[in-house]
């Protein structure tokens, strides 16, 4: 094809020498036609890297072989940067050979009314579930609708977990009603807003609340896009049999609305020859161990209740691959559960996702910078803090030596809505005992990896909270988490983390500030599950 391409260009060049220059404009369409043919012929020299051949053996075996070839061809050569390969067109695929966007041929955009009806269905289902559970607020009708429309808005008194996890999860369902029907991130957010407004006026008897109409769609979009991306990394329409069933069920559990839509759209049973979903590297780290919570203001280690911890960290996307980034092409999500004392199981959920960003290099220093959305949720025996943030972040990678790598990321964000506990200790009430706030947040995370042998990490979060609903004042919260890990076996490490929580509260009604500190210690085993086709530690 290269020979054909060269001959064609030479013929056109010689032809133009002998023609009348005045006729050149007339020949442009003809030239374009021949160039399209030649480029098309040249582009067909190789099939896409992820294509299976129908009726040429078991599709699952073909997919497995394709993944093995990709892992071999595209394995990291420079600690997180995949090798280049001539089969990959980086305008359509990342360097790992995966699509940069869902294939619209197999994922069309459905009419507006379909996700809108599904949003209504989510609210009807949620209301019916609440009624089955005996919740008084679920008994809605014309009287409550008229009351809500006439009475106006308020800051509600729901429990902390309801407002800062329950409502955002419902918002993720509204969001994915559109996202799973061909709408992009920004196009899906209005459906989350609409679903929230519909619920506030017509889904419950209590008055519409300001905090819900902020938290539900915005943090709902945060969780919804993460659920959509994770399910895409699981799904593979080329597979069949038990493999396919497992993928469909797992993806449906992560993103139930998408799972339902796949059934309704026939996608659960569709078979393709190529990959049709955007995928990015996904690494999972599991932590399990013992969590010692020291008594209030105690500086003595090991004094207080002991719990079992389970932590899951998801790292999606390579921040140091130079690609055009859409929202959430890179994100990190941490979720920690504690078992052993008290009714609270979800200790914290924190994360961030990129909205827009770019990459650059300064010598050996690799940099990604951009705008991010942040979600922080802490609900444990020490404190309650929920914060929605938007701001900027910078990620860096610097090779100190061949085996020692230093990763750092720093963030600064505005917090339009936060919830902050008004007392020191666990919330055992069934009503609101927290204030509504705005403010600022800053974060820094730094890790040095000593090859495969050990790592040392430093994590610091700072929140400046100004109360606008509740007892007037300001609150300064600092969270410090130094950590060390030592490798025991392949991808298995033993770690220790010291957790320090500082709270400096200044209320206008009190002449002096209220200061408290709480420490915790965690000993754990961590298991790093590396994406087999997209290897590399990225941060």
Automatic annotation (TrEMBL):
Highest taxon of the lineage: Bacteria
DUF3943 domain span: 152-257
Pfam families: DUF3943 (PF13084)
InterPro entries, per the entry: DUF3943
Transmembrane segments: 21-42
Keyword terms of this UniProt record: Membrane, Transmembrane, Transmembrane helix
Protein name from the UniProt record: DUF3943 domain-containing protein
Source organism: Mucilaginibacter xinganensis
């Amino acid at each position: 094809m290269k020979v054909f391409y060269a001959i064609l260009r030479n013929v056109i060049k010689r032809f133009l020498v002998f023609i009348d220059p005045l006729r050149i404009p007339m020949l442009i369409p003809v030239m374009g036609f021949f160039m399209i043919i030649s480029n098309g012929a040249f582009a067909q020299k190789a099939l896409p890297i992820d294509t299976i051949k129908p009726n040429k053996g078991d599709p699952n075996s073909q997919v497995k072989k394709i993944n093995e070839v990709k892992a071999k061809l595209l394995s990291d050569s420079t600690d997180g940067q995949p090798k280049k390969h001539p089969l990959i067109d980086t305008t359509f695929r990342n360097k790992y050979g995966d699509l940069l966007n869902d294939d619209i041929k197999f994922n069309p955009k459905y009419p507006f009314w379909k996700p809108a009806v599904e949003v209504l269905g989510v609210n009807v289902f949620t209301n019916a579930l609440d009624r089955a559970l005996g919740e008084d607020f679920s008994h809605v009708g014309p009287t409550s609708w008229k009351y809500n429309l006439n009475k106006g808005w308020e800051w509600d008194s729901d429990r902390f977990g309801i407002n800062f996890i329950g409502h955002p999860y419902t918002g993720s369902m509204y969001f994915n009603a559109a996202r799973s029907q061909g709408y992009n991130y920004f196009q899906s957010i209005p459906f989350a807003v609409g679903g929230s407004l519909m619920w506030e006026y017509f889904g419950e008897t209590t008055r519409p609340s300001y905090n819900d109409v902020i938290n539900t769609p915005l943090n709902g979009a945060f969780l919804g896009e993460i659920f959509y991306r994770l399910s895409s990394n699981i799904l593979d329409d080329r597979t069949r049999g038990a493999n396919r069933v497992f993928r469909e069920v797992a993806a449906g559990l992560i993103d139930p609305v998408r799972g339902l839509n796949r059934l309704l759209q026939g996608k659960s049973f569709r078979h393709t020859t190529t990959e049709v979903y955007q995928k990015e590297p996904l690494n999972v780290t599991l932590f399990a161990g013992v969590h010692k919570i020291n008594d209030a203001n105690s500086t003595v280690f090991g004094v207080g209740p002991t719990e079992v911890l389970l932590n899951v960290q998801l790292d999606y996307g390579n921040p140091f691959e130079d690609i055009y980034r859409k929202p959430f092409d890179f994100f990190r999500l941490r979720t920690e559960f504690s078992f052993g004392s008290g009714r609270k199981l979800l200790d914290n959920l924190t994360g961030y996702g990129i909205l827009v960003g770019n990459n650059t290099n300064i010598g050996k220093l690799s940099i990604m910078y951009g705008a991010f959305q942040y979600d922080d949720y802490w609900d444990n025996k020490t404190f309650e803090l929920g914060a929605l943030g938007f701001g900027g972040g910078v990620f860096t990678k610097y090779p100190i030596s061949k085996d020692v790598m230093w990763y750092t990321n720093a963030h600064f964000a505005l917090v339009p809505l936060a919830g902050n506990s008004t007392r020191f200790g666990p919330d055992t009430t069934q009503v609101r005992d927290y204030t509504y706030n705005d403010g600022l947040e800053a974060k820094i995370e730094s890790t040095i990896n000593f090859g495969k042998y050990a790592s040392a990490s430093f994590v610091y979060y700072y929140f400046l909270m100004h109360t606008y609903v509740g007892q007037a004042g300001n609150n300064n919260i600092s969270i410090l988490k130094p950590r060390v890990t030592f490798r025991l076996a392949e991808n298995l490490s033993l770690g220790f983390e010291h957790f320090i929580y500082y709270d400096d509260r200044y209320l206008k009604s009190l002449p002096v500030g209220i200061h408290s500190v709480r420490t915790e210690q965690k000993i754990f085993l961590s298991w790093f599950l590396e994406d087999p086709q997209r290897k590399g530690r990225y941060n």
